[in-house]
Amino acid sequence: MGYRQFTSKLARVIYDDEVVDAGCEKLFHCDWLAANSRCALVERGKAVMFAYRGRELVFKQYHRGGLIGRLVEKTYLYSPLSNTRVWREFNMLRAMRELGLPVPRPVAARCVSVPPLAYRGALITERIPDSRTLTEILRERPLDNEAWAKLGALIARFHHKNVYHADLNASNILLTGGGDFYLIDFDKGTIRRSLSRQDADANVARLRRSLCKLQKRCPEFHFAEDNWQALERAYRAAIDQPENQAG
Question: Would you give the distance in Å from CA 241 to the centre of its chain?
Fold first, then answer.
């Protein structure tokens, strides 16, 4: 596997040359995406799924939230390339895949300078085949406690590798038709030298809050207290094991 970089006018692009080539910059253009996906309009914060060279890919444009987001939308104050959100997430995905963790394959990232002091960025990853978010699935059907335990043990795997997910919620967890879980959307996440128990517990608590919030919004949301207990028991059992035993 090789990763290459190039500069085009004000843009810097990094890409996986086993999936795309230097012509991949067109994939970041809204007109191309609108013409080659099911999206008539590429909106900020919305994942765009499209096919390219026989692969299913996902485009994500970084954007600001809150009041600042309304003012400057997709641009950020300038920082060295390696510190930009798009470059950090691309390289974090690379590192996690090298650790054997189930995350999407990073395909390409593009960072555009917006003079005098700003930038905007976008990321393309490979889509996880036959997968849906945990949110989508639980709106339709329940999962058995074995699946919840499997998810708890998986989260412990990430924590054993010192991975901190900044927004672990039900929409950032994928489940495949074969029963495999993946974590996605590591914007603002980090791989630390050592992940504290406090931060690990905060990740788990964040997931529970998201599930409870969805349950309140949707009366048919399939989530029960015994599901959470199954997840938490499996997580505690796995996190208390030595890393080489926990996977």
Answer: 26
The DSSP symbol for 19 reads T
Q: What is the pTM of this model?
A: 0.90
Question: Could you give the 3-state DSSP secondary structure of residue 10?
Answer: coil
pLDDT tens-digit readout, 82-98? 778 899 999 999 999 99
DSSP single-letter state for residue 40: S
Measuring CA to CA, which residue among 235, 191, 204 is closest to residue 98? 191
- The residue from 16, 130, 167, 187 that is catalytic is 167
C-alpha distances (whole Å) from 171 to each of 46, 175, 185 are 13, 10, 9
167 assigned to active site:
yes
Structure tokens at 108: 């390409």
Rounded distance, CA 243 to CA 240, Å? 9
Task: Give mean pLDDT, residues 197-207.
Answer: 97
For domain 131-246, give the fold.
Answer: Transferase(Phosphotransferase); domain 1 (1.10.510)
Q: Identify the sign of the CA torsion 36, 37, 43, 48.
A: negative
Q: Where along the chain do its domains lie?
A: 3-126, 131-246
- Check for a shared fold between 3-126 and 131-246: no
CA distance linking residue 14 with residue 3, whole number of Å:
7
Residues paired with residue 58 on neighbouring β-strands, in sequence order: 49, 125
Q: What does CATH list as the number for 3-126?
A: 3.30.200
